[in-house]
Amino acid sequence: MSSRNFFAELKRRNVYKVAVGYAVVGWLLIQVATQVFPFFEIPNWGVRLVVLLIVVGFPIALVIAWAFELTPGGIKRTEEADRAYPGRSRGRAWIYVVISAGLLSAGLFFLGRYTAPNENKIPNVPAKSIAVLPFENLSRDPDNAYFAEGIQDEILTRLAKVADLKVISHTSTQRYKSSPNDLPQIAKQLGVANILEGSVQKSQDQVRVNVQLINAATDAHLWADSFDRKLIDIFAVESEIAAKVADTLQAKLTGAEQHAISMQPTQNTEAYQLYLRGRYFWNKRTGPDLQKAIDYFKQAIDKDPNYALAYVGLGDAYILLSGFGAARPQDSFPLAEAAAKKALEIDDNLAEAHTTLGFSLCVHHFDFAGSIREFERAIELNPNYATAHHWFGDGPLLAVGQFDRAIAEGKRALELDPLSVIITADLGANYLVARRYDEAIEQFHKAIDLDPRFYYTHWNLAEALEMKGNLREALAEYKKAVELDDDPFVLALLGQAYAKVGQRDEALKVLAQLSQIGAHRYVPSYSFALLHMALGEKDKAIEWLERSYQEGAGLDLIFLKVDPMLDPLQKEPRFQALVAKVFVPKEVTAEGQTSP
To answer: Taking the model in full, what pTM does it have?
Structure first.
């Protein structure tokens, strides 16, 4: 049979028609499976099975079309049909079938694409992104809440070490409960495609952990499992869960990442539980809670002197103490640095330890180059560690005037921790220092939307308004901040605003009040400097800044060159001499001493 006759015979036997009709109907079936199966929580393998059957059936359909014909007398072999019904009409009904199926298929496709509820759409998020929601505490003892939170945090920490994943930070997930009803909305707020939720039940030395990985948009369960283990095996459970989640999301793991998520940080279960208690209080972010955290971290170290993460926790608590008015910087900063260095002696690959050390080099030694190196190393080790990006942008990068890079790091931190009030506010502070006041004001309002009672945001917003020349509005925001917290620095900001609007007597009252507070509580010298500067007393302002240098108040001094509040002093020789002291290149000896 010639090729021309062969194709003519294909046409005569309706093979072409069957091929076209089969393709259209097959496409229709695939659309039905794709759109309908997730609604009934049918796993993804069900859709793949439908596609496979359609592909396998295609050549079978063509063979049947060649060999058989549909006649008024039923299905007959083609040769018999030709003899029984010579010259029969091969109507065009098939055309209408194909067109109808095609229209139905297209309609179903666009219906599923454009009419699905908006809350189930999670646009512009990577498929390999995940948030680990707080694990439910099923233990009878409510005090075990710290343990459930610790399991969640450890799994999250291990996942965060995988560069191929986007992992949302602990801070942003804590406001949600496990097994919520509005997963798509939560995923949209956090910017992730997947949610891991679970529960923990602890009884003496026995632990049960239940977890399930869910695609938030479809509510399809990608993986679930239960683990009944001894407490001593909890690290293996955390590692197994992290590895399984990474595998399910098809994340690529390097050898170093596989090692990182499988590590057992301590063999001592008592030390581990003390560490979890320490982190529980550290996350509360108040002076008294930080002191409690320090006590628990020290107890964990007593139980296991080689517990690197416990030293990191200790360093993180000390680095924050002065910022919450619970210690003088010259007392707490050296202790933070010592703890971070001890952690790195034990494990040089801890991103958290490099982060703490990087911040210490910045605010304690004014070693900005060394600080930048430590932060870059931390981010290399753990690109999902939001605190590293946050402190990197808000610390050395901002201090040396690398504004664009500082803002970029702030934005990256916010991607990883989108509901963090402090990160949201500090991104506004980056805009403020970069003199991008309108963007700063917009960012501060976003932080206020997250927490209207966070005093830090109100006084930062007030500074941005003040720099724009809106002194009356700034004064109102300073007053709000003072009402929300008794931080003496905020009181100083209010006082300098009084001076600038001409209420000198009010400013002097604040100055006297700060002196009284300073008799029994640490008041940053920077506070007095701002007030004296607003009162037109530049020499006294510089004198207080020099005192701040003697106190080692790095959280204030690192911004000497860029702080818009200090612009009136920039041309003063004594001020420039102080700037030179802070920003001279530093070398830090092995003993931790700083030298020019």
So the answer is: 0.76
